C-alpha cells in the first residue's frame, strides 16, 4: 500500500535521479545514493530499473519529453506567426539557461559521461532529432532547411555559452542573430 500523497515509486526514483544526476553528474552519483534519497528499497528499485544505465535512460527520456512539451506549449502561447514563434523558442531557452542552478545541457553532459552506451546514446539521439525538427515544424516544410539548421546551431551555441562561459544572456544574443536570419530569409509565395 502506498503512502497517501507520496508519488509512485518509479516517479520518486526518476525525480530523485533527475535532481541528483543533473546537479552532481551522472557518474558522480551512485545508485545507492539514488535509492537512499528516494526512500525506495534496493530490491524495489531493481524492479523498475535493472541497471543504473536503465535509470539514466529513463531520466533523459523524462527530461526530453517534459522539455519538448514545455517548449511547444510556450512557443505556441507566445506567438501565432511562425517567425515570431521561432523567436519565442529562444525566449523559452533563455529562461532555462539563465535560471539559478543551470549546469549545462543534460544531454551533452550524458553524452560526455556515457559516450559508448547504446541505450543512452539512442535517448540522446531521440532528443536531438526533436531539436532538429523543431524549427522546420514551426516554420513549415517550405522553409529553407539551412535556415532551420542555423537556428539549431544558434540554440546549441547559446546552451554551450551559458554553461561554459556562464553567459546568462547567450540565448538573447542567439535570438538577435535568429531575428536577422529570419528577416533575411526569402518569403514564401503569397506572404507579404
TrEMBL record:
Keyword DNA-binding belongs to the record: yes
UniProt xrefs under InterPro entries: Homeodomain-like_sf, HTH_TetR, Tet_transcr_reg_TetR-rel_C_sf
PROSITE patterns given in the database record: HTH_TETR_2
Alphabetical keyword list: DNA-binding, Transcription, Transcription regulation
GO molecular function, one term: DNA binding
Entry-linked Pfam families: TetR_N (PF00440)
Residue ranges flagged as DNA-binding region: 30-49
Highest taxon of source: Bacteria
SUPFAM superfamilies hit by this protein: Homeodomain-like, Tetracyclin repressor-like, C-terminal domain
Residue stretches making up the HTH tetR-type domain: 7-67
Name listed for the protein in its UniProt record: TetR family transcriptional regulator
Classification of source organism: Bacteria, Bacillati, Actinomycetota, Actinomycetes, Streptosporangiales
Amino acid at each position: 500500500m502506498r503512502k497517501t500523497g507520496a508519488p509512485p515509486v518509479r516517479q520518486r526514483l526518476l525525480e530523485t535521479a533527475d535532481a541528483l544526476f543533473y546537479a552532481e553528474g551522472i557518474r558522480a552519483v551512485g545508485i545507492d545514493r539514488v535509492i537512499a534519497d528516494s526512500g525506495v528499497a534496493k530490491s524495489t528499485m531493481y524492479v523498475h530499473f535493472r541497471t543504473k544505465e536503465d535509470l539514466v535512460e529513463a531520466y533523459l527520456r523524462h527530461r526530453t519529453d517534459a522539455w519538448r512539451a514545455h517548449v511547444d506549449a510556450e512557443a505556441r502561447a507566445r506567438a501565432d506567426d511562425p517567425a515570431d514563434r521561432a523567436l519565442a523558442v529562444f525566449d523559452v531557452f533563455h529562461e532555462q539557461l539563465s535560471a539559478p542552478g543551470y549546469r549545462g545541457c543534460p544531454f551533452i553532459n550524458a553524452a560526455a559521461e556515457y559516450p559508448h552506451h547504446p541505450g543512452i546514446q539512442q535517448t540522446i539521439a531521440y532528443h536531438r532529432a526533436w531539436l532538429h525538427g523543431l524549427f522546420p515544424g514551426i516554420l513549415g516544410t517550405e522553409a529553407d532547411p539551412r535556415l532551420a539548421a542555423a537556428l539549431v546551431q544558434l540554440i546549441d551555441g547559446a546552451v554551450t555559452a551559458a554553461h561554459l562561459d556562464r553567459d546568462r544572456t547567450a540565448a538573447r544574443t542567439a535570438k538577435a542573430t535568429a531575428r536577422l536570419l529570419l528577416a533575411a530569409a526569402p518569403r514564401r509565395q503569397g506572404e507579404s
